[in-house]
Amino acid sequence: MKVNEVPQDITFYEGARRACYALDDQGKYVIVPSCGWSAEDVVNGLAVAELATNLEKTRQEVLKGLKSPLVYHMERRQMTPEILAKTVGILSIRVRRHFRPDVFSNLKSSILERYAYALKLTFDELKSVPEK
């Protein structure tokens, strides 16, 4: 894409700009500010809607006692078990085990502290999910 072809539709970024790479007249890549474009807006909107749907499904499963609140908070932060495990400093298989409500409810406070710190939550927030 050439410098003069970089889309400037006001979209998902609500007027803010982001950096895009485009070719200048000499054929070199340069950074050009862009407000986005409509196709990007549609895709980002769909992705955000899907994330919200999945998060609500997980919240319902936590409320039914099928999963621990840890799963909800991990997904809310858009983390995977592997990323959370590396952040907390434990094996990912242990993180997955902590997804079980019975195991999570018996965790030592030192492990809960590490999860709360990694997820930027208080103890009370970590142990529960929002009602709505």
Key terms:
mainly alpha, 2 domains, elongated, 434 Repressor (Amino-terminal Domain), 132 residues, two-stranded antiparallel ribbon, 7 helices
Work out the strand percent: 5-15%
Number of helices: 7
Helix content: 40-55%
Mean pLDDT: 90
The CATH class of the largest domain: Mainly Alpha
How far apart are the termini? Answer: 44 Å
- Can you tell me the CATH architecture of the largest domain? Orthogonal Bundle
Oligomer status: single chain
Task: Tell me what you see in this structure.
The chain is mainly alpha-helical. 51% of the residues lie in helices and 9% in strands. It has helices at residues 38-63, 69-76, 81-88, 92-97, 101-104, 109-119, 123-126; strands at residues 18-23, 29-34. It has a two-stranded antiparallel sheet. Strand 1 and strand 2 (29-34) form a beta hairpin. Helix 1 packs antiparallel against helix 2.
Nutshell version of this structure?
This protein is mainly alpha-helical and 132 residues long.
What is the secondary structure topology, with strand pairs?
Elements: E1 18-23, E2 29-34, H1 38-63, H2 69-76, H3 81-88, H4 92-97, H5 101-104, H6 109-119, H7 123-126
Antiparallel strand pairs: 1-2
